[in-house]
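Page header: ASSEMBLY MODEL / two components / 339 residues total.
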Amino acid sequence: MAFSDSDARVLPGASAPADARALAHSRALPKSARHGLKVVILGGFGVGKTTMVGSVSEIRPLSTEELMTEASRGIDDGGAVRDKTTTTVAFDFGRISLDAANVLYLFGAPGQERFWYLWDQLFAGSLGAVVLVDTRRLKDSWYAIDRLEHHRMPFVVGVNRFDGRAQPPAAKVREALALPGEVPVVDCDARARESAKQVLITLVEYLTTLSEQR
Amino acid sequence: MNRRSIDREAPDRLYTVTGGRVLGDDDPFDLVSLIVAERDPAPGMQSEHARILVLCRAPMAVVEVSAELRLPVSVVKVLLLDLLDTGGITVRHPLPAPARAAGPSGLHLPDRDVLRQVLHGLQRL
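Prediction written out in full:
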């Protein structure tokens, strides 16, 4: 897949008028919906995050924005008031109704370093994460993995095999990313609903195994 | 998707919508808190408040309200707080955040019952 995540958002009917757009995601939750849950899908630019969100979501992926005030980065804050710059960061999400009460939200988040201040806030309380990698650009996921480990957020790695070319086996990917042995590395096709679903199931099974070990 | 970039939007609009207010550390909303309207819009109400009350006739997550209104999450939270303070909405909070496990991994792990429910839900897809 040669196009970027933002290109991937351009789906048939994307230029439909506002009322049609409203219909596209007017699938309301039942009154019984009670608990929102979160899973984050991280990865480099164009790796297929939005595609994966879209392939399992019951609504077309939505996009929204959050404001990011640069001066509120806490690292070098010596108490002095610095100039504040407010920028916006866009992110995509989709939704899966698991049962009458539980709704799982999937967030696609760019893995670049400059976004981490935002993700630290946005994804507190997530069940876990999926790091989606393209074997041609493995280093794009280094920072995301480092950050997840720092936050002690459990994750699985999905190797997006979308173009059918011969690619390094999962063991090589594991080695290149210096992943601990227990972290699952699974091949997937982010475009395929069943494959994306299987990645999520792998994550939940991994979380279950971890929680049984404690 | 013909998403409108807030970058290209007059900053004055965001300021006007919230009256320049921002949420502090007392932010009661998670991205996936579900918002439920408790009454219908009233005449003369700020249009964004009215739209939220219509959108949330069925439960809707904060992040979905943000996408529907095409306003940044933090701006939407200010509007939601107005409605919460006046009884216009109620909030269904997410389950408690995953607790940090004891032991060497120290990973944040969700409750096992929650995991079971999520797994069953995914398998049924």
